[in-house]
Amino acid sequence: MKRLVVLVIAALALTASIGAPSVTTASSPRAACGTSLETWFAPDGNGYAGGAGYVVEFSNIGTTTCTVQGNPTVVLTKNGKQVGLNSRHDPLVPVKTVTLKPGHTAHVVLFVTDAGALCRPIPTNGLSVRSPGSIRARVFPFGAGACRGKSTLRVDAINPGVGIPYYTIR
Length: 170
Prior knowledge:
By secondary structure, this protein is mainly beta. The protein has one domain (33-160): Immunoglobulin-like (Sandwich). It is built from 1 helix and 13 strands, in the order H-E-E-E-E-E-E-E-E-E-E-E-E-E. Strands 1, 2, 3, 7, 9, 12 and 13 form a 7-stranded mixed beta sheet that branches. Residues 1-27 have low confidence and may be disordered.
């Protein structure tokens, strides 16, 4: 009888462990997202005196959990060529590692300063966004103004979750 009870308990424990999701600790190494990140940008911003704020999102379109850390590189372009300097990083937002399961999203907040307040602006027609850890950029149609030798863009570090326009932007 004792042997039967032990076998039943062992069988139940095995069945429970098969159906349960695996648990990983924060120290478990994960591969960087790299090309698994799909970038999305909506040109509807939240205007303020002197500029506007936008949300840029990065979704894991891969099949495995991955990590992303740091700041994206964002530049304004005119007919595919960079105008002005790369985005500056917001020093008030700490850099953290964000773990993304397949289908999950992270975001950053992008601030675009009105170039007319800084220089005689060059009109632009594109926004190039390179996610942290990636070598390829994605270009979105975007009309703004840029300054030669200056940056009119500031971006914070990657944050977990979906950004909500008009709410996420501080």
